[in-house]
Amino acid sequence: MATATETHHPSTKTYWIVGAFLAFVTAVEIAVSYTEFLGPVQAPLLIALGLVKFITVVAVFMHLRYDIRGYRALFLFGLIGALLVFTVVMAVMQAF
């Protein structure tokens, strides 16, 4: 009998499906990087594809999809803080 403290974790099949999805997105990224006619859309598209992969890995392999919401909030707090520190450092070094 399941208790309230047990959490659901993905099956091996889910890991294989996610792995195949990540391989597909990586192949699309490689194809986009070699496509010259995309021009100014190429960099934002690669960033978006990287973000899709990041969210997928965090949700499934780090089990945030299956954990309590508090863990998601802590992860997002740290991520946003790291991005803010990165932005400030880049601005101070006049990298923009």
Account of the protein in words:
The protein is mainly alpha-helical. The protein has 2 domains: about 10-65; about 70-95. The protein is about 70% helix and about 0% strand.
Compact summary:
The chain has 96 residues and is mainly α. Helices cover 70% and strands 0% of the residues.
- Mean pLDDT value: 86
Q: Sheet bearing the most strands, described?
A: none
Helix content: 55-70%
Q: Round the Cα radius of gyration to an integer and report it.
A: 18 Å
- pLDDT under 50 segments (min length 5)? none
The structural class is mainly alpha
Counting DSSP H or I runs of 4 or more residues, the number of helices is 3
The fraction of residues in strands falls at under 5%
How many domains, in number, for the residues? 2
| Euclidean distance between termini CA atoms | 57 Å
* SSE arrangement, N to C: HHH
The rough form would be described as flat
Number of strands: 0
What is the secondary structure topology, with strand pairs?
Blueprint (H helix, E strand, L loop, with lengths): L11 H23 L7 H20 L7 H24 L4
Helix pairs in contact: 1-2
